Amino acid sequence: MANQSTSNPILCASFNQDASCFVIAIGAFTIVEMLFTSSLLAIVGAGEQPSLSPRRLCLFNTMTGTALRELNFLTSILAVRMNKKRLVVILQEKTYVYDINSLAILDTIDTVPNVKGLCAFSPNLDACFVALPASTTRGSVLLYNAMDLHSHCEIDAHRSPLAAMTLSSNGMYIATASEQGTIIRVHLVSEATKSYSFRRGTYPSTIFSLSFGPSMELPDILVATSSSGSVHAFSLGFALCQRGRRSSIILGSIIPEYVSDALDPAHHDVLHNAAPAGVKSHAVVRRVDRVTDSSTSQIVACRATISMVTYNGYFQEYNLTISNRDEYSWSLEREFNLLTVIPENAI
Ligand SMILES: *[C@@H]1O[C@H](CO)[C@@H](O)[C@H](O)[C@H]1NC(C)=O
Fold first, then answer.
1. If you write DSSP's letter for every residue of 100-164 in order, what string do you get?
2. Selection from 243, 187, 235, 228 nearest residue 310 by Cα
3. Which own/partner pairs from 188-191 qualify as long-range (CB within 8 Å, at least 24 positions apart)?
4. Using one digit for the tens of pLDDT, what is the confidence trace for 285-306?
């Protein structure tokens, strides 16, 4: 709709659970989520017409172009997450957990007022966590196991309220940022301990997105986008790359080394001006490859593919190469205007 659109026509951009696809919502919709590469979409209206109520979740089949089911709530839906077994619907004071096949409601989590609909979800069925704010005055996180349907733990991550969080795809790590936006923390979910603290910057800024690399062992890389318009990349697992295959040792035992690594500003790089300052953006680490030297077959670098949607209507994809001398180089692989490839009012 034209009234919201001139500067930021995109109302929501979300990547699917394995970061292979993304969907954007423009115009009449505020939420759109995809289930892997299936034909199932969860969509929520922006409320400008009664049929597009922000309190109604529509599960939509993109193959047949039909609504499969609708779920109605008493207050606006702020976020939706899915995996092959669960559908999680986040409202301001309640989070509902459903069986995604039968749509039977399995549990209701009463939360502190979650006005931003903050939520992180790990789609992995063996560590299927939902992370929700646990305080409105501090940066505490409630971790809830959506398969077993019980609270797992609470983590006191920051002194000020949370602004962003993400879980690694294996459910083992959670990264958080507070409204200050200067420090990003990574915690090991199983131990609920602080494991890494990164300084993102000196000046406060709003963190819009956090994303781990897709590795099923230790995530290699964490990227953050913020209102400054820059993309920050933190090298988490690079020491692991250097140690090669010896890496599958018990995670707990390698964490202490990372703590000191993590505080080292050299393990961090910034791509400036990736988006105009203040424009919301969402970046994910789509893949990470290890680059080996052909003669010695040693790992000489990690190369990450970072995809980003900016809410002013662009898709960008970068290769970030991190050499084993900790040199970072970014290259823009592709960029296109989403609004010229998508017809108006499409999802
Ligand atoms: C960017 O990364 C992709 C995937 O790893 C690779 O195929 C491509 O060659 C890279 N491009 C450059 C310029 O290195």
1. TTT--EEEEEE-S--TT---EE---GGG-EEEEE--SSSEEEEEEETTTTEEEEEEEEESSPEEE
2. 228
3. 188/251, 188/252, 188/255, 189/127, 189/129, 189/143, 189/152, 189/153, 191/252
4. 999 998 999 999 888 888 999 9
Ligand 1 pocket mutation pick from 303, 317, 318 by most atoms within 8 angstroms of CB: 303
CA distance 70 to 311: 27
Rounded to 5 degrees, φ, ψ at 292 are -110, 150
Which token pair is 322? Answer: 């991190």
Ligand 1 centre from 234 Cα, in Å?
Answer: 20
- 333 Cα–ligand 1 center, Å: 8
> What does the pLDDT look like over 201-239, one tens digit per residue?
888 999 999 999 887 666 678 999 999 999 999 988 654
307 lines ligand 1 (CB under 6 A): no
- Whether the pTM exceeds 0.70: the reply is yes
Nearest to 129 by CA among 149, 152, 140, 145: 145
Which residue, judged by its Cα, is nearest atom 4 of ligand 1?
A: 305
CB of 319 closer than 6 angstroms to any ligand 1 atom: yes
User: Ligand 1 pocket, 332 CB below 6 A?
Assistant: no
| Residue 331 in contact with ligand 1 by CB distance below 6 A | yes
CA of 291 to the centre of ligand 1 (A): 10
